[in-house]
Specification:
The complex is a heterodimer of chains A (139) and B (547). With 139 residues, chain A is of the alpha+beta class. Chain A has a domain of 93 residues: 3-Layer(aba) Sandwich (Glutaredoxin), CATH 3.40.30. Chain A is built from four helices and five strands, in the order αβααβββαβ. Chain A has a five-stranded mixed β-sheet with strand order 2-1-3-4-5, covered by helices on one side. In chain A, a hairpin with a 6-residue loop joins strand 3 and strand 4. In chain A, helix 3 packs across helix 4. The longest helix of chain A has 15 residues. The N terminus of chain A is likely disordered. With 547 residues, chain B is of the alpha/beta class. Chain B has four domains: 103 residues, Glutaredoxin, CATH 3.40.30.10; 216 residues, Rossmann fold (3-Layer(aba) Sandwich); 84 residues, Ubiquitin-like (UB roll) (Roll), CATH 3.10.20.600; 88 residues, de novo design (two linked rop proteins) (Up-down Bundle). In chain B, the strands form three sheets. Chain B has a five-stranded mixed β-sheet with strand order 10-9-13-11-12. Chain B has a four-stranded mixed β-sheet with strand order 2-1-3-4, with helices on one face. A four-stranded parallel β-sheet of chain B has the order 7-6-5-8, sandwiched between helices. In chain B, helix 7 packs antiparallel against helix 8 and helix 19 runs antiparallel to helix 21. Chain B is flat, with a radius of gyration of 27 Å. The model of chain B has no long low-confidence stretch (mean pLDDT 91). The chains are: A alpha+beta (139), B alpha/beta (547). Chains A and B meet through helix 1, helix 2, strand 2 and strand 5 of A and strand 1, helix 5, helix 6, helix 9 and helix 11 of B.
Amino acid sequence: MCCASTVERSPTIAKLKIEDLDRIAQEVKQVIHLRDGRARARVVVHMGTCGIAAGAQAVLTALKDAVNDRQLTDVLVTTSSCAGLCSREPMITVQLPDRPAVKYADMTAEKAARVLEEHVIGGKIVQEYVLAVGSERVM
Amino acid sequence: MAHCSHVMVCTCTTCISHGALKVKNALERELAQRNLHNDICVAQTGGTGLCVNGPILVVQPDGVFYRQVRESHVPTLVTEHFVGGRPLADILFVPKDEKVQIPSLRDIPFFKDQRLIALRNRGLIDPDSIDEYIANDGYKAIAKALTSMTPQAVIDEITKAGLRGRGGAGFPTGRKWSLCRTCVLKRRAEQPETPCYIICNADEGDPGAFMDRSILEADPHSVIEGMLIGAYAMGGTHGYIYVRTEYPLAIRHMQRAIECARQYGLLGKDILGSGFSFDLTVFEGAGAFVCGEETSLIHSIEGLPPEPTQKPPFPAESGLWKSPTNINNVETWANVAPIINWGAAWFREIGTETSPGTKVFSIAGNINNSGLVEVPMGITLHEMIYKIGGGIPNGKKLKAIQTGGPSGGVIPASLLHLPVDYERLKEAGAIMGSGGMIVMDEDTCMVDVAKYFLEFTADESCGKCSSCREGSQALLEILEKICRGEGEMSDLDLLQEISEAVKDASMCGLGQTLPNPVLSSLNYFRDEYIEHIKNKRCPGGICRITA
């Protein structure tokens, strides 16, 4: 089984040396900050046990379906863990290049599809669903 | 050194023509002059799409957007924003059609007062991606330890940091490691092949507690890295992560993380070309509460009935398969790598003198924002409940907080000024515990709460010590009797007496602490017991008084 690498790399994974750590970090940061222009947005679905229990799987499926239907090859849909505020799950985070991350709370499949349409594609934050902008820490 | 904030200066053609490079240079000069260049990183980025208003500056993680920044703004910007923490209104970017101000995450009370160390990567990285962990200073600490620190230096750093066991008891981690290392060296002097086992206790059993689960789900590599550092320091040869089987997602993430770490050679033989070898196995526990106790946990891995054994000998001396063994809780392990990366002095600046660092709590019950929070030690319970927790729903009044699960106690609303700190909570008759915090409003019956926890512990007692086995049953019967309205005043003394006997005579932590919910509720809410007994009335309206 291959590791879930953020950065695509040759299938044979060699044992790391210490200097490899920095190289991987740089490669990942490029992608995550969407700085290399390969992707226009990154959408993170928070999928801890709490998120899944609140319906995060349906949100993830809706986002993936919408991205596939519209052939948005430059939108990364990925998962992460609980963002801490379990009572407001499912939550998603939308990251556009060089913009502060935006967190949405109490998501459903329909709401997530609207966020994709209006925010990810249209560039306009969906005020009704938004929890906050910014993140707790910088990558 | 991790940066606290990043300033992204847009250096697209448009912004450069507006003078972005001058602004960037001025910013770097100003930060260096004020010695802030290690905290604040200036980065160049590409077009933001708003560059007609350039130069554009974005400050992360605050998410503050500045436009038309001039060189002359820079000194004020640094003073106001980076030193003073107030965004500079003059040059703030306000989109025309966005009339409603969207709050910044840092302005939301739930997030504002949190300080993330153990949960540093929560919600930020994909837990299945080892690369994303590495991109966040991951495996840097083990690299540092392997290349520039002796095992003893690692232990000294952890000792200096004052890290205490986050599982609940708060035993100093450095001392635990030191003890284990001494035993390993002693045994290896006679038998060089003596194994040493490093265990992560993820047998989180307190009702309402989910800190460890969240850490394993969010950031499994942080635990692996902590254990690697511990293994290097103590001479560990193999490790176990003891997770209860009720945590399927945590187990899946952890197994995947171990697999990825092995592929990268971060587990296995000759890690990072250093000659140091260590590997890990996930062990699924069947969910017995007593397995959170060190010796029971060890017996469970050995395939024996999970019953505690008398200490000493401590696991450091004779643990898993009679070899030197060190056990730490998930959250303790997750704290190790940041301490090695940034040093003991950095860690000690957070928290209190006797309880440095942060503590993760799961807040549940009658509270608006239930969830997982990591706060600096020393924060008051009031701040936890009303600022971070957002208060009590439906305008109800707070009655009490229960910390530490079945081993802990209740803290009445009148003691909300208490700081969260191992000693202070103990003085109040509760314990820090592993971090479960159950908030109870005025409609709660405190006798019922004590009964609930006793039902749990009476069921979970392994039965080895009669004081625990019979004592918990006897306490439960009396509590049930009081709840039915059949109690007598003499029962209160009996509760007290049995509680003390169970505490004194039981061998392990389960028995020694199971009377705490009874004793603390008797202490702070005696009137509620009396109300049940004398007036046959349940003040919370919970108990069905049949007498």
